[in-house]
Amino acid sequence: MIYPSADIEKSACNGAADAAPRARIAAVEEGSPAWDAGFEPGCYLTSVDGQPLRDIIDWRWLSDGDAIEVGYIDLDGENGEVELEREPGESWGFEFADALFDSVKTCRNGCIFCFMQQLPRDVRGSLVLRDDDFRLSFLQGTFVTLTNLSAEDEERIKEQFISPLRVSLHAANPEVRRRIIGRHADWGLAALERLLDAGIQVHAQIVLMPGINDGDVLRETLEWAWQRPNILSVGIVPLGFTKHQTRFEKSFTAPQDARAVIEAIGPFQQQARAERGNPWVYAADEFYGNAFGAATPEQVPPASDYGDYEMFEDGIGIIRSYVDEFREAQENGLMARCAEALKAADAHPRYIIGEAMQPFLDRMLEESPLRGHLSALTVANRYFGGNVNVTGLLTGQDIAAAIAASPDEGPFLIPSVVFNHNGVTLDDMSVSAIEKAAGKPLTVVSCNPNAYLNEIIALAAHA
After folding, report:
1. Region for 379 from its dihedrals, namely left if φ exceeds 0, alpha if ψ lies in -120 to 50, beta otherwise
2. How does pLDDT run across 364-382, given as a tens digit for each residue?
3. Which of 37, 98, 312, 432 has the highest CB neighbour count under 10 A?
4. Backbone angles phi, psi at 204, to 5 degrees
5. d(CA 210, CA 104)
6. Cα–Cα distance for residue pair 239/261, rounded to 1 Å
């Protein structure tokens, strides 16, 4: 029971007709002000000091003081207000179920490269939700175009200083932008300009497409971005396309094409290192892998270029991090211990990877103490097709087929990156479903060498 500061009245809190935003409470910290007031998981917060709660950003903004009045809906569907007080530095004690308390802002563009429009028809609904929500950009690092930004949204970003944002730039040339994004392209660019002028900082992304926004267009875009100091970085990722579309047939898979991109950004990186202390513009790992193949470990930029690896989720810096950790495991003896454990157990596991890793990981394993003990099993992505070849986008059916076709008996090791938080792959297969379809034993392991080598040692000890 919540102890209110005002009379409560009945509310249709559990009805779909109530469209007002509300924050569902997932947990309450014992002994906290929320706990003392009688809040329980399943209750809702609706306001702070009379202001509606649209998302976790509002909550942080409005609840910054040490005394607030919150509106609520309790488990019986009754609503009211209650005053809360806390000691300086004390948490209010609420944990919310979601970051957004209203509906997600969706995309209204017609981007020619949109990956979600290239998916098979039978994918689950969450994979085709085209969000374009500035709040998720700030909270979760997703990229937005700003083309659906209202005047109210823009003023809110400035007032609450929702910064930095991650923005899909693609091209600065208005004509090229309209070709790529659609008729709302100019709106998004104008909004970006206003936000930058107001001090909002941005990490920009360019999805690079051959013959559309590469070459001179890319250089023009980078020059435009460089002139705006509040654009903190620019990440360039290659066009990804599947077999379920007819618009694209190539990206930057040819070595000469990938190298041309790396060379094009070189002068900008050189200037940025001298003037800003970091490369500023980054090419995604695929460019290096496509350009250099087995020699990629020697060609990717040093770890110092990637800083805190904050672009990791964008495919920037993963190879460098992996290579450095692999070499560290070799130098500190962990790899040798793993090899000895596998030799003692007479085990020869296969580590599942996508085609993107195959050229350089095969070489690294062959040149390490793990040679003859641990090898990779490269899986082609037939579900998506096209140029989709990273491990994280492998599906259960492709993995199962590759394992079943392998002459080895396993065990087969699947990196955890192919599963979501519900433990299923992009085609909704669980570990047990893949194992059943493959007809051979498999184990989920970590993606990082230091972690999965220790896990393999433990597996070998129980073999």
Report:
1. beta
2. 999 999 999 999 999 999 9
3. 37
4. -100, 155
5. 32
6. 13
